[in-house]
Amino acid sequence: MKSENTTLGYNSKVEGEVVVTQADAVINWIRKHSVWPMPMGLACCAIELMAVGASRFDISRFGMEVMRFSPRQADCMIVSGTVTYKMAEVVRRIYEQMAEPKWVVAMGACASTGGMYRSYATLQGVDRIVPVDVYVSGCPPRPEALLDAMIKLQDKIGRERSVKNLTAPKAAAAAAALAEKEA
Amino acid sequence: MATTKEISIGDLGARTGVAEEELKGETMALNVGPSHPTTHGVLRLLTELDGDIITKCEPVIGYLHRGDEKIAENMTYNQFVPYTDRLDYLAPLANNVAFAMAVEKLAALEVPERCQAIRVLCCELARISSHLLGVGVFGMDAGAWTVFMYTFTEREKLYTLFEELTGARFTTSYTRIGGVARDIPEGWLGRVTDFINGVLPVLDQIDKLLTRNRIFVDRTQGIGVISREDAIAYGLTGPNLRASGVDLDLRKDKPYLGYERYDFDVPVGTTGDCYDRYLLRAEEVRQSVRIIRQVIDTIPDGSFYAEDAKRIVSPPKEKVLTSMEELIQNFMITTEGPQIPAGEAYFEAENPKGALGFYVVSKGGGVPYRLKIRGPSFCSLSILDKLVPGHYMTDITVILGSLDFVMGECDR
Amino acid sequence: MSDANFASLKERFAYLTERDSADHLAVNCPAEHLLECCTALRDDFGYDLLVDVTAIDWAAETSPRFTGIYHILSTTHHAYIRIASDCVDDAAPSLPSLAGIFPAANWHERETYDMMGIRYEGHPDLKRILMWEDYPYHPLRKEFPLAGIEVPFPAADVAETANAKVLPAPMMGGPFVSSADGTMREIEPQAKDESWTEKEENR
Ligand code: SF4
């Protein structure tokens, strides 16, 4: 017997109530419901980010209230605000310190494209220095928009080929070791 | 049953093979920020520690320098209004008003009384919004998370009001040179009254949670004391200056927008420590509520923009779409900008964070030749290298929280 | 009131001249007397709160090119004064630093140095404050384009891993503004900054 989304198989005849599924589905399911955001609060958008975490919009309904300011404990960087060239260096360094797998949400016009700050000091979009998964429009985006973006991110995580990504580096390392041996 | 055994750590140096003498004078450099929860944005502090005591502190700013002043030289006065929202993004309405007032001062333009009253309302609501966040975040910095939730609930109500008035939650862009963008909506004043009636009990609650809270008091009293002389010498303004005992409030001492018509008190601190700054902000919210009540009671009828200034103000949309003359006027002002005479003017408004000043230099026409923005947070932060040394590392959080700064207007 | 005040200042400081102003008292002060004048204003006239320090660039062809502007507020009699002081050298402008008498001037002067390139003589630690340390230009000078100029990224290692550069911002969409005077074609609203694709030859 198979459930509709075909990622889950369950047969009551098998003893011990076993559920059969794909490794991808399990890993993604775990990952997408335990996103720990790292609030990269840079400017005005950070206030809306705070609103998302506060009493009215309440991001904890989506299992994401565990805001971690330490990049090593977080897996989703929400870049909320204007990234200047002076700050870009720091944003990139923090991104590099985050553990894999990691995602980036560019919140607001500034983080997405530089927004209304077309000037000598502003980086024209954070995607020039880090890969971005979800862009949110608005100056600032309403909290609902950010929540929507986070749900989009969950969908995206759900479609990832996690096992392949997990084993790919291992396979590559093995191949490299083999090549070295032969040489 | 658990037993405790006293251990001596007095000879730690000897045990690790390092003589205590050698450790003396040894300091550690510690970098705080620019991405750190206590820095409220992108402030960076380079500190030097002797044990847990800070011996040196150098603030590094500029991580949010977006080039506002250069941008201003490249656009018309009205086009720049949205950029003023993003200076002190906790009180955008007050920034809008301050900017419009500075340009109007240069043009020697008086706005009608109704417009003034609306602007006073905007300023005071903005002050409540900013101080609520200031107090909430300060509480959070000192370990009292609940207060933040209470104040943010109130701020959400304010955002709803702002949205009704301006169309946006906090990037309001509400003023125009010579007026405001639109009149207040039907029934809005009643909803403001509801809000201020509701905010007072919350203030009492915050008061109960913080004012006599042992931990909060211990962490803030006597910490970060700024003397009267230092406060003046470093150019502090607003609540931070008044907490140090200087009775200077531009609303009282250099009245603008008809503030002299309203009856309110200016709280002044005595010691200038973090606790005083908290008390002062909490009291200022109550005073703002007082002002708002008086404005609502006395708001005059009339126009919400200066109708006679045909070269400066663009008329409201209904008129533009129905009469030729107004259509042309609107076209000229949209394309060429408000025509401001040549000259220079400096105007400071008493904003929630302190005195926000605009220095406008015009050579005539619709574009400023030079616009300098004086951000109060910039001055508040310049005192850090004098204020912080001698405190414990953990006090940095409290001191920064009590100064209530925002990097948007500090770096511009 | 403004006149009476200026008269009393003039009595004390013969070198001051009155400056056109749309608001409060404003004076011109020669750079060499600035320090002495401000000290006296603080000690004897009650102007004790330095609120703002800035400068104006009157564009390359004008002389004197840079004017330093100071706003001081009195916390006792609640009045502002504006002091303007022309920088002597147009190529390497400088002014005396007020950081010794007003600690508030320290950061303001660093900012003006950063943005305009005015050197403040006697400043304890004159270095950039808003832009990063080795940024080569002074952005608020009139000849500097709003979009910026290509320079190396502040951190070399990040520049390499992220392939990042400091590039001029695209200006194709505006802001559209019109200048104060000129022919009909020139005052027509247009993007003021033409460093991107709007060069004259591309039209
Ligand atoms: S997108 Fe708008 S609100 Fe957000 S940081 Fe940029 S200017 Fe501020």
Structural overview:
The complex is a heterotrimer of chains A (183), B (412) and C (203). In chain A, 41% of the residues lie in helices and 13% in strands. With 183 residues, chain A is an alpha/beta fold. In chain A, the strands form two sheets. Chain A has a four-stranded parallel sheet. Chain A has a two-stranded antiparallel ribbon with strand order 1-2. The radius of gyration of chain A is 20 Å and the shape is flat. The N and C termini of chain A lie far apart (51 Å). Helices cover 49% and strands 11% of the residues of chain B. Chain B has helices at 12-15, 20-23, 68-72, 77-85, 92-107, 113-141, 145-166, 188-210, 214-220, 228-233, 239-243, 250-253, 274-298, 317-320, 324-336, 376-382, 384-387, 395-403, 407-411, and strands at residues 28-32, 44-50, 53-60, 175-176, 179-180, 343-351, 354-362, 370-374. Chain B has 19 helices and eight strands. Chain C has a domain at 2-130: Beta Polymerase, domain 2 (2-Layer Sandwich), CATH 3.30.460. Chain C contains five helices and nine strands, in the order αββαββββαβαβαβ. Chain C has helices at residues 2-12, 34-44, 105-116, 156-162, 184-187; strands spanning 17-18, 26-28, 49-57, 66-73, 80-86, 94-96, 119-121, 176-177, 190-191. In chain C, the strands form three sheets. Chain C has a five-stranded mixed sheet with strand order 1-2-5-4-3. Chain C has a two-stranded parallel sheet with strand order 6-7. Chain C is globular. The mean pLDDT of chain C is 80. Chains in contact: A-B, A-C, B-C. At the B-C interface, helix 3, helix 10, strand 6, strand 7 and strand 8 of B face strand 3, strand 4 and helix 3 of C. The site of iron/sulfur cluster (SF4) has 12 residues of chain A, from helix 4. Iron/sulfur cluster (SF4) binds at residues 43-45, 81-82, 108-110, 115-116, 139-140 of chain A.
